[in-house]
Design brief:
heterodimer, A: about 210 residues, 9 helices, B: about 110 residues, alpha+beta, Arc Repressor Mutant, subunit A, 3-stranded antiparallel β-sheet, 6 helices, elongated
Chain lengths: ~210, ~110
């Protein structure tokens, strides 16, 4: 008896992978993390300012670069996204659970729970929070580099949580700076490989096909 | 004869398949468009591995059947063809999938 299977998964994965294979997203994320780390070093940063930078600076720049570099080479597809409310609810639940779990773990392991230990553990918290996002992208796209970056991020988060730096959030800034640099390097490597493997089509060929 | 009844029923369900969707090239186009909001010509061409001319002729047939909507735009000076599955196309794709599963279920192992 033939059983109906969900064949949409490989097609969806392929569509999602398309928008991540150029390395530009990694570069944009790396730039954002580096800028954020720099702002943390300078002083306190308003979360609204960070969101504004992301929404009106980095994301539009990323889209413009993709229109110029990616789409003429491999085409354009807009994958079906989850409803924003479901996504935000999921992210909020995940963030609440890991924050409570991490702080409870800290209380048990360190035997105390104060502002100093919270600041000290912010790299681990940031890494665990980002792990959810990286895992989501890995599952969605099937790209293993995000799994690798996730593992490095988690290991780095733990590592920087035991190091001591100047300032309350000094270790978080150092962690985000290193992670941002890593993302920019991997993004650049992926972008160069992408450009080599996907040369720009001639204008005549593009016109003839459309 | 029961055997003949089954046979004719199976043949009937096979004969009732939507011929527009049944063609492998067009089926591939619909399958790829079914998981995206919209996609351009180049994306579909790379995903399906078809030549430009072949893809164009399949797109024309699907557009004629109103299974896909075609939007011609310009990105700077470069022409761009955006494709989107219509509700009618989505229904046809789903119905085809059900029909082919039913038809294949009737085949002897």
């Amino acid at each position: 008896m033939l059983k109906p299977q969900d064949l949409s998964a490989p097609f969806q994965e392929s569509a999602y992978r398309y928008s991540f294979q150029d390395g530009l997203t990694d570069l944009a994320l790396g730039l954002f993390l580096t800028l954020y780390a720099g702002a943390l070093r300078v002083g306190s940063v308003s979360p609204v300012l960070v969101l504004l930078l992301l929404a009106f600076g980095i994301v539009p720049a990323l889209r413009a670069l993709q229109r110029r570099i990616t789409h003429p080479r491999i085409g354009y597809a807009e994958p079906v996204q989850e409803k924003l409310t479901i996504l935000i609810r999921g992210m909020a639940c995940y963030a609440a659970i890991v924050t409570v779990a991490l702080f409870a773990g800290l209380r048990i392991l360190a035997g105390r729970f104060d502002a100093a230990i919270i600041y000290q553990s912010t790299p681990a918290l940031a890494a665990v929070l980002m792990a959810g996002g990286f895992h989501y992208v890995t599952v969605r796209t099937g790209l293993r580099r995000f799994q690798f970056l996730n593992i490095v991020s988690l290991a780095g988060g733990l590592f920087f949580s035991v190091l001591r730096f100047e300032g309350k959030l000094g270790n978080l800034a150092a962690f985000l700076l290193c992670l941002g640099a890593l993302f920019m390097v991997t993004g650049l490597v992926v972008l160069l490989r992408f450009l080599r493997n996907n040369p720009l089509r001639s204008k005549e060929a593009a016109d003839a096909r459309q | 004869m029961p055997g003949n009844d089954n046979g004719s029923g199976w043949l009937g369900s096979l004969a009732a398949l939507d011929r527009i969707v049944h063609e492998p090239g067009r089926l591939a186009i619909l399958a790829h468009l079914s998981v995206v909001v919209k996609a351009d010509f180049l994306y579909i061409q790379r995903q399906t591995g078809m030549t430009g001319g072949n893809l164009s002729s399949h797109i024309a047939k699907l557009e004629e059947a109103r299974y896909i909507a075609v939007e011609k735009t310009f990105e700077g000076k470069t022409p761009r063809t955006l494709l989107r599955l219509t509700d009618r196309g989505r229904d046809a794709f789903r119905s085809y999938r059900q029909a082919i599963i039913q038809a294949l279920t009737g085949l002897p192992e």
